[in-house]
Amino acid sequence: MMKQILLGKLLPVVAAAALVTALVAVPVLASPASATRSLPSSVESGDEFDVAIQPEGCGFAGQVIETLPAGFTYLSCLTPDVGVEVTGNTVKFTFLGSDSFTYRVEAPAVTVTTIYPFHGVVKDEDKNEYPIPDDDITVSSSGTGTYTITVAVQGNGSTTPSAGSYTCDSGDVVSISATADQGWEFDRWSGDVAHSGSSSTTVTVDGSKTVTAHFSPISATTYLLAVECEPGDGGNIVLYPARGDNRYEAGTSVELTAAAAGGYAFSCWSGDLSGSANPVSIVMDCANSVTAKFVLLTQEGQADFAVSSLNISPGQVQPGQQVDISMVVTNSGEETGSYQATLYLNGDLEDTRTVEVALNSSQEVVFSITRTTPGTYTVLAGGQQGEFTVVGGQAAGDGLSAVTIIAIAAIVALVIALAFVFRRIRGRM
Q1: What integer pLDDT is reported at residue 404 of this predicted model?
Q2: Which of 116, 273, 312, 417 has the most CB within a 10 Å radius?
Q3: How far apart, in whole angstroms, are the C-alpha atoms of residue 328 and residue 192?
Q4: Is the pTM of this model over 0.70?
């Protein structure tokens, strides 16, 4: 009789446990979310075109996050009831269920036919993230045209050409320089320039642009680190930490990295440094002058590479968040060749990538990296310099899914029920 009573009391409990186990197993058995992207294989320079996204298995309030290539501009979403959030080159779409949607993009104005990759991820209702396969698009050259280049000044200083607006032909490379007034120093350029930290740099005319020379007052004893490349087109010198007009406070240790241009190789240092170590450091206890010497490698009948359009996206991230660093490699030589792209972070070699570039064509190279330590990181890629910042702490992970919370609550209720049943049984024995 006692066994029958026990069996009658325990049978509902066992059934409840089996139900909880099935609920917990549901998320594990669910299929992962996915999405496909449809876009033209090629467009003309500056054209507008549509990109169609077909998500699957996202559940309620799924998301697709697209990273547009450098130079592309998001215009609008053509599908109603889709939430859109734009941050730089990143566009986040939030939608209901697995409905497809279409958005419109404008291609950059280019003077050389270039291939660009589209990147993206899809998230399900529990914020689990899955990659969307990359798609390439070719942007064909638009030929010649004219654009407006505007030069501005912030602080006490002047520029050459002087502040104002100028009409330039598409494809031109305009030289600009900044000179600080007495008691001031050059800080940086803002806008699309080749080297934002150098007082003398260039602007490539591939669209209308505004560039601004920033000057700041000199507030401490500083020494000038004069740098020069020999020959002048053999490469450039990247300084870390970077300072406006190459002035450093006394006692600062500065790391110099010689970055060879296409067709050249670094040879040695001269002036207040010697040897061929690269990178190398110098302590600024007085004014110093350093020359980086390069040797010509390019021979007749070979490929001739040039690197441009350094893009860092996003420029500010949380610890562990991915940063995409891209540049465009152009081959203007006499045959197809392979170019080894290099990426330095704070003067240390981070990654290399070898790409094959056809004659009179360009190829975009993308490095994807993460950093967990907050701070500002100086980027050197293909002889171009930029930076990004890691701020704050790692964002907390997404909360538990609704199904998991229900399962946990059911387990707690089951434990309480078991305790109550066994207390009743023990009271009757």
Answers
A1: 56
A2: 116
A3: 14
A4: no
User: How sure is the predictor about 274, in pLDDT bands with cuts at 50, 70 and 90?
Assistant: very high
Q: 252 near 224, Cβ under 8 Å?
A: no
Q: CA angle 113-118-121, nearest 5°?
A: 175
Distance CA(250)–CA(287), nearest Å, equals: 9
CA distance 175 to 159: 11
- Domain-by-domain residue ranges, the chain? 2-30+399-428, 34-137, 144-219
Residue 17 clears pLDDT 70, i.e. is over it: no
Q: Which CATH class is domain 34-137?
A: mainly beta
Is the pLDDT assigned to residue 218 strictly greater than 60?
A: yes
User: Residues 366-394: what's their mean pLDDT?
Assistant: 87
Mean of the per-residue pLDDT values for the chain?
84
Architecture of the CATH domain 144-219: Roll (3.10)
The residue with tokens 């409990």 is 13
